[in-house]
Design goal:
The chain folds into five domains: 216 residues, P-loop containing nucleotide triphosphate hydrolases (Rossmann fold, 3-Layer(aba) Sandwich), CATH 3.40.50.300; 154 residues, P-loop containing nucleotide triphosphate hydrolases (Rossmann fold, 3-Layer(aba) Sandwich), CATH 3.40.50.300; 78 residues, Arc Repressor Mutant, subunit A (Orthogonal Bundle), CATH 1.10.10.10; 49 residues, no CATH class; 113 residues. The protein is 42% helix and 19% strand. A seven-stranded parallel beta sheet has the order 3-4-2-5-6-1-7, with helices on both faces. Strands 8-13-12-9-11-10 form a six-stranded parallel beta sheet, sandwiched between helices. The chain has a five-stranded mixed beta sheet with strand order 17-16-20-19-18. Helix 14 links the parallel strand 12 and strand 13. The longest helix has 18 residues. About 1% of the residues have low confidence. It binds one DNA strand of 16 nucleotides through helix 7.
Length: 734
DNA sequence: GACCTGCTGCGGGGTG
């Protein structure tokens, strides 16, 4: 391996020496060959703080240090904060090589942009949205400035796979190669990513037409040691004023105070609302005990200065600090490692749990995960979900899948992304001024990322875009922007492909505390919790979109916006396995490890006992109280499909945590109906979507014709084939 | 019963 190091530019070697590094990491050594060769795409996959950035930049800078004119490295990041980080980190190395580095995003000073505009050179650090703007507004300049680009590198690539923004990025890269006439001789794409699930599928996510081979470099180190404990809490029913029992959240805050004070921890509380509420309770505990506060909230609605202060405090590691946070501290930002990670309420997915756990484990020590789960004290008339203790069992299933099976959810790459296709049709048309239909289809769907879109889809979409004046077809057959299309493309809000709810600024006096996405009314005199403190609303200005507040004591949390996503088949099947065996423990060699405290064990026994008394091992459809329950123990696409079918059949049905409740009926009519559905065959996803009234989920969905909207929505929400298979498996013998 | 990300060009006013 020493020879690999020798292949780096002497000035790069000198920089490595100055860092005081004893040696390069394994992935850094292994990346040198493929990056220097520059004849393949490269996937570099390693855990947080694994040295991925240097693995790319050391050889890439070696290869391009002496190129004088034009950008040589195009670096793309999903976060502005990450661009600023990388700018600081690259300064030293690039000074050594006399290379220019330019950060370029919405907050970058014009002076830096102007300098690069006059004399583009070296490394450009940019967001997909800013790159989109360059292609649309400055295509001629871009063609010159990027003419000799040697590498395109995408940071946090996992954050792009299978989502709208990733489709846009891939489409932009295809358009760039086309603009530079590099189709026959593509620019190598390098993806830097946290460890990914199914590595074999990633190259196609990086280059959908497979027009260049891909080298994969991963580090093999996993968690060295792992300590996990699940703690259960009982939320008392009918609390009275003089009750000595405490609500579950209060018990959890007591526990958090004990576990966290004096150390460095991350508490993931899943919603901004719960994040606020827990952080403010913990801050109160510190106040009551007259000790300095060390508990702070961190989420996307909080003003940047509050977030950055907390990030800096965590990174400096001089004072004990606990961040109560949402996924804002899950990836990317460099905050170092913490003593432990604490998950309050069930995680949303195994992959997110895995990312979070990766934040723990200092200096090669054990990673520590606590999971605090509250279930309600049982009362008469309770629903199946409570009786089964589903939240607890879902958490146990996720821990087992992560640790025993080393499994986590793969990205969903089967979507059409019609909304982003509308955007890319407009963007490409704007970039070229005019374009032929066949060229557009070849670019976006044959070489670009919209491979699932057929020529038939494409024609129907273009016809609709013509009818709604997004596009106009010239006599020559060329497409140009229509009146509505011009209006959209010329507004700065066009460049991003994801939808944002309307936000209000929260202001105390003259100080902006942060922003709040609003979909429920906030009324004057209402009390809210924000930024870890309680406030009283004094004024709501709907024109300026401002909420004025003054400080108070106590108060109920604000309502935050958001939408749900799906639990995977594999998670629900693992839950079924745990219920059926009555055993959640993890096998280590021949021994079985228990990782629950006594309250959690009791709660689990309650759920498992109910499961067995109701014969749910063999009976997926049971009656309880005035309702019948259908329990497929499959992912939310199948659950959604069954609910849609039952509603069409005239039943009243709804689903909670994967369990379908059909009210006011018994097992027999439900079975008869589902057997009938099975014999006729489950309708296609697109037909099920037709019965859903509100299907506008993504930003440009409102510009789709009804048939494409149904097809796209059906694909993301339903699963007909799997539902048919489940019906056949459980109903055939009955 | 979620969560997160991003954005141009131009004109007017102040400062050195």
């Amino acid at each position: 391996m020493i020879e690999e190091y020798q292949r780096l530019d002497p000035r790069v070697q000198k920089w490595v020496f100055q860092q005081g590094w004893a040696d390069l990491r394994e992935i850094q050594k292994r990346a040198i060959g493929p990056i220097l060769a520059g004849d393949t795409d490269v996937l570099i996959s390693a855990s947080t703080a694994g040295g991925k950035t240097e693995a790319f930049f050391l050889p890439a800078c070696t290869a391009s240090a002496d190129q004088q004119e034009g950008f040589s490295i195009l670096y793309i990041s999903p976060l502005k904060a990450l661009i600023n980080d990388q700018y600081r980190r690259l300064e030293g190395l690039c000074k050594m090589l006399d290379m220019q580095v330019t950060p370029w995003h919405g907050d970058t000073p014009q002076s830096l942009k102007k300098r690069a505009k006059r004399a583009p050179s070296g490394i450009l650090l940019i967001t997909p949205e800013s790159l989109e703007a360059l292609l649309i507004l400055q295509a001629g300049w871009a063609r010159e400035a990027f003419a000799s680009v040697r590498y395109v590198v995408v940071d946090e690539f996992h954050a792009f796979i299978g989502v709208e923004r990733g489709q846009q990025l891939l489409s932009i890269l295809t358009r760039l190669e086309h603009l530079l006439e590099r189709q026959a001789n593509p620019i190598p794409r390098v993806a830097l990513s946290a460890t990914l699930g199914e590595l074999d599928t990633v190259p196609l996510s990086l280059r959908p037409d497979g027009n260049m081979p891909c080298s994969t470099i991963t580090n093999t180190e996993g968690f060295s040691t792992l300590k996990v404990q699940v703690k259960g809490y009982l939320d008392p029913a009918n609390l009275k004023a003089d009750d000595r029992r405490k609500p579950a959240e209060h018990q959890i805050c007591d526990e958090l105070y004990r576990l966290c004070r004096g150390g460095s921890h991350l508490v993931f509380a899943n919603s901004r609302r719960r994040t606020e509420s827990i952080a403010s309770q913990l801050a109160n505990f510190c106040k009551e005990r007259v000790v300095p506060n060390e508990f702070f909230p961190h989420h996307g609605s909080l003003a940047k200065e509050f977030r950055e202060d907390l990030e800096a405090r965590l990174q400096k590691d001089l004072l004990p600090t606990t961040a109560v946070c949402t996924m804002t501290l899950e990836l990317g930002i460099d905050i170092g490692k913490v003593n432990s990670v604490i998950q309050v309420t069930a995680p949303h997915s195994v992959s997110s749990l895995r990312q979070r756990m990766g934040r723990s484990g200092r200096r090669g020590g054990a990673a520590v995960l606590w999971m605090l789960i509250a279930e309600r004290e049982l009362c008469s008339g309770f629903k199946l979900v409570d009786l089964l203790r589903v939240q607890l069992v879902q958490s146990l299933a996720m821990i087992r899948l992560l640790i025993s099976n080393r499994w986590f959810e793969p990205a969903d790459t089967s979507q059409f992304h019609f909304s982003t296709l509308v955007h890319q049709i407009l963007a490409t048309t704007a970039q070229w001024g005019g374009i032929r239909v066949d060229q557009l289809y070849a670019l976006l769907c044959r070489t670009g990322p919209f491979q699932a879109v057929t020529t038939d889809h494409f024609k129907r979409l273009l016809a609709h875009m013509g009818r709604t004046t997004l596009l106009t077809q010239m006599g020559s057959g060329e497409l140009v922007l229509g009146i509505e299309g011009e209006r959209m493309v010329n507004h700065y809000s066009f460049y991003a492909v994801f939808r944002t709810p309307e936000e209000f600024r929260i202001i105390n006096g003259t100080k902006v505390l942060g922003t709040l996405p609003l979909d429920t009314p906030i009324i004057p005199k209402m009390h809210i919790v924000f930024g870890g403190r309680s406030w009283k609303v004094t004024d709501v200005d709907t024109d300026k979109r401002v909420i004025q507040v003054i400080a108070t004591k106590g108060g109920s949390p604000p309502a935050f916006a958001g939408e749900g996503l799906g639990v995977h088949d594999v998670v629900r099947q693992e839950m079924f396995r745990i219920y059926a065996s009555g055993d959640y423990r993890i096998a280590v060699g021949t021994a079985k490890v228990d990782f629950l405290d006594s309250t959690a064990q009791d709660l689990f026994q309650e759920g498992a006992t109910f499961f067995h008394h109701s014969h749910m091992v063999s009976q997926p459809i049971i009656q309880h109280g005035a309702a019948t329950y259908v329990c497929p123990w499959l992912g939310d696409k199948t659950v959604n499909t069954l609910v849609a079918l039952l509603l069409q059949g005239g039943f009243e049905a709804g689903a909670f945590a994967g369990i379908i409740e059909v009210s006011g009926t018994s097992v027999e009519p439900v079975c008869t109906f589902l057997q009938d559905v099975m014999r006729r065959g489950v309708p296609a996803e697109v037909e099920l979507a037709d019965a859903v009234p509100e299907k506008h989920v993504e930003k440009f969905d409102e510009f789709l014709p009804a048939d494409l909207l149904n097809e796209g929505f059906g694909q993301r929400a339903f699963e007909s084939h799997g539902t048919q298979a489940w019906l056949e498996a459980v109903l055939t013998d009955q």
